[in-house]
Specification:
Blueprint: H1 4-15, H2 20-27, H3 31-39, H4 61-71, H5 82-93, H6 99-109, E1 127-139, E2 142-153, E3 159-163, H7 169-183, E4 189-192, E5 199-202, E6 208-210, H8 212-221, E7 224-227, H9 237-250, H10 260-273, H11 286-296
Parallel strand pairs: 1-4, 4-7
Antiparallel strand pairs: 1-2, 2-3, 5-6
Helix pairs in contact: 2-3, 5-6
Length: about 325
């Protein structure tokens, strides 16, 4: 199939005086095809007229339909993607066909769209993005929603995830300390949206009035606390991808675990498995790129920050 670049080269050659016969010999196409290119500035869009034949998928279609039906009872953000369905068909049911057959069939079963953003490049060791994701977990006493603190390096893409009992300031402080210990280094910048537990007040531009203890945390670890503009969560796409990973992959189907400690051990193993992953368009694994992050990051201090919140109190009565 000819690309736009092929069209450009053929049309330029013809405008330079080359005959259709010569162009056909040079670019290895028939004269009929060359004449078609000369009449159109770019390739025509390709429209599939009928449903593609997918013989290997045939007996797996009921499985896909059942998965999609079961998803209707699952939390919205923990439903299967086409990739997840493909992996389950391959690993659990012995499917030997290609992913595209699964993707096309899923799209025909449910039409859906999702906004995407093009992430910017960032130098190693500089930027860590933070956010909360929410998943449902089946514990021994029933299903409940759990907030999960996620941090992700913008250069390497290595995540850290920790389930927390709340999203209060002390939980954020404790989670950030655990994240730095997990990475064994500190980024030069930590980016958030604008949670009130971190940014007490939004000032002009990117200026914020910080929670006193979060400011103390930033001072102790020597990172620059930075924030997205309001309603611009797409400014931190890497942690958004980690939230998606958490909900669609790590927590789909809904996990069945004993308690929060077991959940956090499971999340830790999910993060460690990312070290072997290679992001699209990159030639190195996440682990190899993280070594560059670590080399350029700030070293951990010898002592850990105390992630507590202190409140003044007055004792009444006599001793």
């Amino acid at each position: 199939m000819l690309t736009v670049e092929d069209y450009r080269k053929i049309r330029v050659a013809h405008s330079d005086g080359m005959s259709i016969r010569e162009i056909g010999r040079r670019f290895h196409h028939s004269r009929r095809k060359i004449r078609q290119v000369l009449q159109e500035p770019e390739p025509r869009g390709y429209n599939r007229q009928k449903e593609p034949h997918a013989p290997k998928l045939g007996r797996f279609k009921p499985v896909i339909r059942q998965v999609l039906a079961d998803d209707q009872q699952a939390p919205r953000k923990q439903r299967h993607t086409a990739v997840k369905i493909y992996h389950r068909l391959r690993d659990e049911h012995g499917y030997e066909g290609g992913y595209d057959q699964v993707r096309r069939y899923v799209q025909r079963q449910r039409k859906r769209s999702r906004e995407t953003f093009i992430p910017l490049d960032h130098p190693p060791g500089r930027r860590l993005e933070a956010d909360f994701g929410h998943i449902y977990v089946d514990f021994h006493n029933g299903r409940r929603q759990v907030p999960v603190l996620l941090t992700t390096w913008s250069y390497s893409g290595l995540p850290f995830a920790m389930a927390m009992p709340t999203e209060r300031a002390e939980a954020i402080l404790a989670g950030m300390v655990e994240a730095f210990n997990f990475f064994d280094c500190v980024p030069r910048e930590v980016w958030w949206d604008n949670p009130k537990t971190v940014a007490k007040e939004i000032l002009k531009g990117r200026q914020r009035k910080l929670h006193d203890r979060y400011e103390a945390l930033a001072s102790y670890y020597r990172f620059d606390p930075l924030f997205c503009m309001p309603a611009r969560g797409n400014e931190k796409p890497y942690v958004e991808n980690s939230v998606y990973d958490l909900q669609r992959n790590w927590a789909t189907p809904v996990p069945k675990l004993k308690d929060l400690d077991q959940l956090n051990e499971y999340l830790r193993q999910c993060c460690l498995r990312k070290l072997e992953h290679q992001m699209a368009g990159k030639t190195q694994t996440v682990g190899e790129r993280f070594q560059q992050d670590k080399a350029a990051a700030i070293a951990l201090p010898k002592r850990h920050f105390d992630p507590c919140i202190t409140e003044p109190a007055q004792v009444e009565g006599r001793l």
